[in-house]
Amino acid sequence: MKITIITVGKLKEKYLKQGIEEYVKRLSPYAKVEVVEVADEKAPENLSEAQMLEVKQKEGERILSKINPDSYVITLEIDGQQLTSEKLAKKMDDLATYGKSKVAFVIGGSLGLSDEVLQRRDFGLSFSKMTFPHQLMRLVLVEQIYRAFKINRGEPYHK
């Protein structure tokens, strides 16, 4: 399976980079994982509705340009479906079973995802109704992907 994590913005925090690198390394026996960063759109603090839309659209165009046409696209969004780790594992297993060997996870910027990206998704996933920094979500996501592979292989992993 080839997994691409497409995310808006550069990751600066060393501790997050190290955590992500560790899980990507742990995933290497199971899947090829690539993290693709697209530039975030610079914007002032107090944006009008139109300016927010424009920022999301520009970031969305960058995201869409990185999605392989035959990828199954999973967006991370507050209003997405919440899954247990076991259900995410089953979803990943089902995708592999039914020939969806390319999966793209998309993490938007601080304003969220554009309508165009949401229209391209195959599944909307929510980790919580809470808002998390998108940089931190990279680490949480890659850990959950690793956990899913361990669950599917019946291998031990801490609970």
Automatic annotation (TrEMBL):
Intracellular or extracellular location(s): Cytoplasm
Coiled-coil portions: none
UniProt EC number: 2.1.1.177
An individual GO BP term: methylation
Main location group: cytoplasm
Catalytic activity, reaction form: pseudouridine(1915) in 23S rRNA + S-adenosyl-L-methionine = N(3)-methylpseudouridine(1915) in 23S rRNA + S-adenosyl-L-homocysteine + H(+)
Keyword Methyltransferase on entry: yes
Keywords associated with the record: Cytoplasm, Methyltransferase, rRNA processing, S-adenosyl-L-methionine, Transferase
rRNA processing as UniProt keyword: yes
Recorded superkingdom: Bacteria
MF (Gene Ontology): methyltransferase activity
Binding site for S-adenosyl-L-methionine: L76, G108, F127, S128, K129, M130, T131, F132
Catalytic EC class: transferase
Matches recorded under HAMAP family: 23SrRNA_methyltr_H
Assembly, per entry: Homodimer.
Family membership noted in the UniProt record: Belongs to the RNA methyltransferase RlmH family.
Function: Specifically methylates the pseudouridine at position 1915 (m3Psi1915) in 23S rRNA.
Protein name: Ribosomal RNA large subunit methyltransferase H
Organism, as annotated: Halobacillus naozhouensis
